[in-house]
Specification:
This protein is mainly α. The protein contains four helices and two strands.
Length: 104
């Protein structure tokens, strides 16, 4: 136990503070979980339907790259690539690899 000095320089023991348990009370944990659940639900509501935006964009620009789509749709390239990949696997869209002609 640590000691502190008082005004007359006589050492006195520091008051022992009760320690909190490592696990918070159930009500506190439950309240935290409830807030987190609400935040996730709000995020799901605000989530943009990126796949619908991709399909709409591809109607006008069928030979676009994922980078080009990401730039025009103001979205992350990885998000666009994942959306395209999901739709290709589901058979909603098809991909065509461009034929590159090499200059000889």
């Amino acid at each position: 136990m640590q000691t502190t000095r008082s005004a007359d320089e006589a050492p006195r023991p520091q008051s022992a503070r009760p320690t909190m348990s490592a696990v918070p009370q159930r009500s506190a944990r439950r309240a935290t979980a409830r807030r987190a659940s609400h935040r996730r639900a709000t995020a799901r509501k605000r989530k943009d339907d990126i796949e619908a935006r991709i399909v709409e964009y591809l109607r006008g620009q069928p030979h676009s790259t994922t980078g080009g789509m990401a730039k025009r749709l103001n979205a992350d390239r990885g998000t666009i690539a994942a959306g395209v990949s999901h739709m290709v696997r589901a058979g909603e869209i098809t991909t065509e690899l461009p034929i590159r002609r090499r200059a000889v």
